[in-house]
Amino acid sequence: MAMKTYETLKVTQEGTVVTVALHRPQVRNAINMQMVHDLMDVVEIVADANDVDVLVLRGSEGIFSQGIDLRDFSLDKPPDIYGLQKWEKMCRQIETLNKFTVAAVEGHCIGGGVQLVLLCDARLAEKKAVFQLNEVKQGFLPGMATFRLAKYVGLGRAKSLVLRGKPFKAEEALALGILDEVCDRVSFEETLQRVVGELRPFHADALELARRLLNECYAVDYETFIGHFLAAQHRAINSQAFRELIVKAASPKKAQNALKG
């Protein structure tokens, strides 16, 4: 993948893994509109890259993100919803990206930072990480975390986290289901590499279909869902990856004939 330079991000590639680090250290990686635009751009590039199978989203200098940068709002005119709409569009791009996504959290992860974590397929943090959804306490809403959070933690716990706005530690986030892994800081990079490895092998069709079904499992009834599942499974078993799987499972003679065919 061709690397670009961004004002608010540091982007690197190692093998088939692209790491996107939020990088506004002077404001604790607060999310402004320039960062939203930068994230949209890099996600579009990653989506089209044939040499990428994992996107890692992380912070920099020991902080994930302090949340939304309120200085982006003008004092000279009433706030409009356009910027927040762009944010939600970018979030959906990450959530539906045709690559595995991993959130790797160090330090504080506040507001919009938590929203970014909820978008990812795998989510890990160091033990000292602190999470908080403090938007309601400040007089606005935590974006579409109002839609996603309850799917991870249940409605009652989601209400508590959003309405009370209390900080919570990584171990609690793990117990709630927001995180998959928690580790010591000294083993953070090693744990991240292991998690990335566990996501492979990468089959784009199977990833897209499984993620789509999981995302809609709370939204539709059984009869609707099984119809969607069967259509998805039909596509999956007609993919090249599944063809190779059944060839391997066949007897050596049948496999040889299939490969010739």
UniProtKB/TrEMBL annotation:
The keyword Isomerase applies. Coiled coil: none annotated. It comes from the Bacteria. GO terms for molecular function: isomerase activity. Keywords: Isomerase. CDD domains: crotonase-like. InterPro entries: ClpP/crotonase-like_dom_sf (IPR029045), Enoyl-CoA_hyd/isom_CS (IPR018376), Enoyl-CoA_hydra/iso (IPR001753), Enoyl-CoA_Hydratase/Isomerase (IPR051683). Belongs to the enoyl-CoA hydratase/isomerase family. This is Enoyl-CoA hydratase/isomerase family protein. It comes from Desulfacinum infernum.
